[in-house]
Design a protein that fits this description.
mainly alpha
Length: about 70
């Protein structure tokens, strides 16, 4: 997420970012954290809005923690 914000690139999907993968899992109500390979395929579908969607997934973790 740091690189996304400093590079200002809207087409980045950080498949290795654990926070993004956990956020994706929370947003989609999955039982286990999405794997890197599956995250890569999902990210390809949203590559145009990758940065914005990655941020949303990352923030979902914070929102989930605040709701507890």
């Amino acid at each position: 997420m740091y690189l996304i914000s400093t590079m200002s690139r809207p087409d980045v999907w950080p498949i290795g970012d654990y926070g993004v993968r956990v956020g994706w899992t929370l947003l989609h109500g999955l039982d286990e954290t999405i794997k890197r390979k599956r995250s890569s395929r999902r990210g390809d579908a949203s590559s145009v809005r990758g940065r914005r969607f990655a941020w949303y997934c990352w923030e979902a973790v914070h929102w989930a923690k605040a709701a507890k």
